[in-house]
Specification:
10 helices, five-stranded antiparallel beta sheet, globular, Rossmann fold, Methylamine Dehydrogenase, Chain H, eight-stranded mixed beta sheet
Length: 708
């Protein structure tokens, strides 16, 4: 489906617009402070240190935010296409979205959004054919949709649901409990929970969870997260009565993930201290009150992700002696390493997740960033490859060992999401729902190419666009990347990207080193002292797109969020000549101080730390804030962040924007858009998402000169 009044052959709606006269920009004056830090004998100035203060607590920062937003929104409002873009995105977004069902406690649960609801609603059914009943509707929790349902966990007997509430996009969660039979809210209220779900005991009396101590007033969104502890909560009681199960005051930087084995015999605590997927494993035998938790794995050398158990045999997904991961079994009766059993060996592809359903392993792999699913018996024999609807991304394949069915969703760049029921016994998939989006997938084409990075490494990249594309070097291209934390980028459906392609844009997504597409070696090649590889990979992608006649520098934009915001910031400072526009979102921009705020200390695994002399030099060499140079003409830049982002605190983007505006010379706009009542991205209401995307695409249209 194209824009009204415009054929695909004619180009797009943009051809009917004439740009307004150049919009004169006057940036707010940002005061400086004489802050100078000494890193191992190297002096580094930080003149905008005051912008790190919490906008909710500091009036000067709040005034600066207001002044910056006034300039930014004033610029965006004068772009004539802005209104039509938002209208079209709204039309595309207005389709029914259903998650793959979850089976728990004898019922089925799924999320549904009728199209433009700010938050998806949780429904339940007794059978898949029954009329659904609303269980939780977060749209009733706030007028502006900024209070979200972050997570749900159902008790084994189906009586209770515990659910986490996210307010204003913060990572903090407040957990509550509902009696499903009566729909009555229980008195339970658990606060200061972050980076933790809950794990019910089979008797449904209560659950395990992890939380931090209450922070000092005013420090909720900036202070370091330390001293997480594991507790047991009994339904109907006060949080003050919760029993401490496990804590390590001698290691305040440790965090804890919690699982309870399906048979209820064991509590498995995964101990972590960063983002590097390396865990110690603590096991507590819940059938014996006289025993204390014991260390099954007593080091952080490898990943050990708990999968399930068969009596005393615990299954783990691990990268020990297998950088692309394998599955092992550890018998608690003989836990010594020599007695471990390999269940599923490493393959040529990367194992990204596995579960036990119906007495079988359902294993999800990546083959060149595309999903594959394989089924194995519990002794590791290959049963079948699961036939998926096409080349794209599948997620789900969860369940219990006594379930004979599982569920998954599937999508690709030009394939809207569909949900399926998977029969474990037969291997057959049955379509349950298919999204009906207002466009024709036949008008779009996706390819995967491989290009050479600076050091000769072959990097895969997806490219998707309308089928009428001409390789004349004049196409507007949006290059999106991430490259970090072992996270793979796979082809998924996105309304925002569809709207971009409808407007004649090309979308390109390389699988940079640092990600999880090819296992641990690929990840490590983009971390710490090798982080520059990630930026080289991204720059090489831009150069390949230009060389291959997709675009030119004057029509090329780059985009990324969080670690991807760092990517954009580093690449625009290293090669400002290569791009016409940059969209860094919620980025880590000050690599010398990131570890001093909230969750930043966890990222040392990937980035290293300025406290180490060698790593300091590497960080200083690419840190976006410190590498802005006075007098340089930078690409048109729209920085986006939010006032309640307590993952990557907004001070990163504030300081980067202030320094960019000071250093930049030229007519390209360098702006910052600061959302209110929003965080790092999770839980953001639909209305805010549409507005932000419309602003970004309008900014690109204006600065990539997208008109005929």
């Amino acid at each position: 489906m194209q824009f009204p009044g415009c054929s695909l052959a004619a180009g797009c709606l943009l051809c009917s617009f004439v740009f307004a006269e150049d919009f004169e920009l006057t940036y707010p004056e940002t005061r400086t402070v004489p802050q100078m830090d000494d890193f191992h004998g190297t002096k580094v100035a930080d003149p905008y240190r005051w912008l790190e203060e919490d906008v909710r607590e500091n009036k000067d920062v709040a005034a600066w935010v207001e002044a910056q937003n006034e300039v930014t929104f004033g610029y965006l409002r004068q772009i004539p296409q802005r209104e039509s873009i938002e209208k079209r995105i709204t039309q595309l977004w207005n389709y029914e979205r259903l998650s793959a069902p979850t089976r728990a406690g004898g019922r089925y649960y799924y999320f549904r959004n009728d199209g433009l609801q700010n938050q998806s609603v949780l429904y339940m059914q007794q059978t898949l054919d029954d009329d659904p009943i609303v269980l939780l509707d977060p749209n009733t929790w706030s007028d502006d949709g900024t209070v979200a349902l972050a997570s749900v966990e159902f008790s084994d007997d189906g009586r209770y649901v515990a659910y986490g509430i996210q307010d204003g996009g913060s990572d903090w969660r407040t957990w509550k409990v509902m009696d499903i039979r009566t729909r009555q809210l229980m008195p339970d209220k658990l606060e200061w929970v972050k980076f933790s779900d809950v794990a019910w005991t089979p008797d449904s009396r209560g659950f395990f969870y992890a939380r931090y101590d209450a922070p000092k007033e005013g420090d909720e969104f900036q202070s370091l997260n330390l001293n997480q502890k594991v507790y047991y909560h009994i339904v109907g009681t006060s949080q003050a009565e919760d029993r401490t199960v496990y804590q390590r005051s001698d290691h305040p930087d440790w965090g804890f993930g919690i699982s309870v084995s399906e048979d209820g015999k064991y509590l498995i605590i995964s101990v972590w201290k960063g983002t590097d997927d390396r865990y110690r494993i603590i096991v507590d035998d819940l059938t014996r009150s006289d025993e204390k938790p014991f260390e099954l794995i007593d080091n952080f050398d490898y990943e050990y992700t708990y999968v399930g158990n068969n009596q005393s045999l615990l299954y783990f997904q691990t990268n020990r002696d297998a950088p692309r991961r394998r599955v092992i079994g550890i018998d608690l009766r003989h836990p010594e390493v020599d007695s471990w059993k390999e269940i599923i060996p490493q393959t040529a592809n990367t194992l990204t997740g596995i579960d036990i359903v119906g007495g079988q392993f359902l294993a999800v792999y990546l083959e060149d960033a595309k999903t594959q699913v394989r089924q194995y018996s519990l002794d590791g024999k290959h049963v079948r490859n699961v036939e998926l609807p096409g080349i794209g991304s599948a997620s789900g394949f969860r369940g219990n060992s006594d379930h004979l069915e599982s569920f998954y969703s599937f999508s690709s760049f030009a394939t809207p999401p569909s949900t399926y029921r998977f029969d474990v016994a037969t291997g057959e998939s049955t379509l349950l729902s298919q999204a009906n989006v207002d466009f024709d997938p036949a008008n779009y084409h996706t390819s995967q190419v491989f290009y050479e990075s600076k050091d000769g490494t072959q990097i895969p990249m997806f490219i998707t666009h309308r089928t009428d594309l001409k390789l004349d070097g004049a196409n507007p291209v949006l290059l999106y990347g991430y490259g970090g934390f072992n996270i793979p980028l796979t082809p998924r459906f996105s309304v925002s990207r569809l709207a971009w392609m409808e407007m004649g844009g090309v979308f390109a997504m390389p699988n940079l080193r640092g990600g999880g597409e090819y296992g641990e070696s690929w990840h490590k090649a983009g971390t710490r002292l090798q982080k520059q590889n990630v930026f080289d990979d991204f720059i090489a992608a831009a150069e390949w797109l230009i060389k291959s006649k997709y675009t030119t520098s004057s029509r090329l934009a780059i985009q990324g969020g969080s670690n991807g915001g760092l990517l954009v910031g580093a690449c625009m400072t290293q090669r400002p000549d290569l791009y016409a526009a940059c969209l860094p979102a919620v980025g880590v921009m000050d690599m010398l101080r990131f570890h001093q705020f909230t969750a930043g200390r966890f990222w040392v695994d990937d980035y290293g730390s300025a406290e180490d002399p060698a790593e300091f030099q590497a960080l200083l060499a690419y840190s976006p804030l410190q590498n802005l140079t006075p007098g340089v003409s930078y690409p048109a830049t729209l920085i986006t962040t939010a006032d309640t982002d307590d993952r990557v605190v907004p001070g990163h983007s504030f300081k980067f924007a202030a320094m960019l505006q000071k250093c930049h010379r030229g007519r390209n706009p360098v702006l910052i858009r600061i959302e209110t009542r929003a965080g790092h991205g999770a839980g953001k209401p639909t209305a805010k998402l549409i507005e932000e995307i419309a602003d970004q695409w309008a900014f690109l249209i204006r600065n990539l000169q997208m008109s005929n």
